[in-house]
Amino acid sequence: MSFQQARIDLGAQLRRLREAAQLSGKDLAARLNWQASKVSRIENARQSATEDDVVVWGQAVQAPAEVIDDLIAQAVTLLERQDSWRQRHKSGLAALQEDVRDLEARTRLFRVFEPGVVIGLLQTAEYARHIFSKVRRLYGATDDIDVAIAVRMRRQEILYDPSRRFRFLMPEAALRYRLAPDDVMRGQLDRLLAVTTLPNVEFGVIPFSAELPSALLNGFWIYNEAMVGVPTRTKDLVLRDPEDVAFYAGAFEELYQAAAFHEEAREVIVRVLVEFARQSPQ
Hints:
13 helices; single chain
């Protein structure tokens, strides 16, 4: 069964439970303190239900314990599958952003390394537009770029939550890759300068002059101490084994030691900004 079909089946089961409890989607959302749209997205397979989602859903509709256990197993399987990015993108760019947003809402400590693109939580709207346009072309995703950008911008509100901690690492090369026009790149670099001043954010740049502990092969996101997301071109790996999490945590710390922070990081960003300005036809 494909990833999307499994998500459709889980959504249908949850809908039947809600209807059997004689609750509207709005009623259920109110009980769970969710946005009403989240119930619709899950039931219509535009968003994956997490383990936490199905637990509180099942409790709200007074489902039998064995039914909730089965739903949990399905939700965990969805999250742990090495699912096809091509299949996931068919459900829409915005749906993918909503999935990530829900995961981030449950995370207190973020450790993120991205070798080739500005980290999603730090992207400007215009930079994100160019990234999503490339993703849509590559994977044949549905044409909902404006909605996806809106969700990505809402995701960034989490940066201003002082109860959360963010540790971001990028190599200098990622600041220079022209994934958008020069004026968009300059705006993106200005945004990164602003991010370096947030009190709960550690933003590190690995300069070209730094000796690397290992080759910068792929990006990864560590959520709390429990899970690592490793996106590849065709698979989205979700790793929960403690040994895997520990391995990526160690890799992150090695990269952290090679990075520049605070004023040194800002100096690298400003240097790249100046070079973009010099090369601009205007």
